[in-house]
Design goal:
By secondary structure, the chain is α+β, with helices and mostly antiparallel strands. Helix content is 29%, strand content 25%. It has helices at residues 27-39, 46-67, 118-126, and strands at residues 3-6, 14-21, 75-82, 86-92, 129-132, 138-144. Helix 1 (27-39) runs antiparallel to helix 2 and helix 2 (46-67) packs antiparallel against helix 3 (118-126). It starts with a strand and ends in an 8-residue tail after the last strand.
């Protein structure tokens, strides 16, 4: 089962941590929980139903399958802050980590059949900000409300 812990946050923001075992069956319930919390801040439309949903699914799947090798004794941690301007998420696992810059381009013809790299590729396209920690076992993602998108 997954566990949610409310954290102290700044005024007008929700801040919570979700911990789950490394089992893919927990991805959808956790995603639904986070999306429900985002809806309370009036997030709606394709950025919620596509970008945020797929971003969380991919990050959790990578942590569970690649990071923790689906070992149910290992945990995945999702830290979430939601306010009127953005949703900020950090997903971390107990795995050895990896170097996201060394993944092959999944859109290159020679890599179309390879099983790795697609999740990171999607995260880079769907999220407004994406950063991995030095070890490569945690990713920080930010999705801004459309009206508050930073100039790129």
């Amino acid at each position: 089962m997954y566990r949610v812990t409310e954290q102290d946050g700044r005024e007008g923001a929700a801040h919570f941590v979700v911990e789950l075992p490394s089992e893919v069956r927990w991805i959808e319930p956790v995603v639904d929980y986070v999306l429900g919390r985002a809806e309370a801040f009036a997030y709606a439309g394709p950025r919620l139903t596509l970008n945020l949903r797929v971003g969380i699914i991919e990050a959790l799947a990578n942590a569970i399958i690649c990071g923790n090798a689906e070992d149910p004794r290992k945990r995945v941690r999702l830290e979430v802050t939601i306010d009127a301007q953005r949703v900020e998420l950090e997903v971390s696992d107990e795995g050895p980590g990896f170097s996201p810059d060394q993944l092959p381009d999944p859109t290159a013809p020679e890599n179309l059949g390879r099983p790795c790299g697609r999740g990171v590729y999607l995260l880079r396209r769907l999220m407004d900000e994406l950063r991995y920690n030095e070890r490569g076992n945690a990713v920080r993602m930010v999705l801004y409300r459309e009206a508050a998108l930073p100039v790129r």
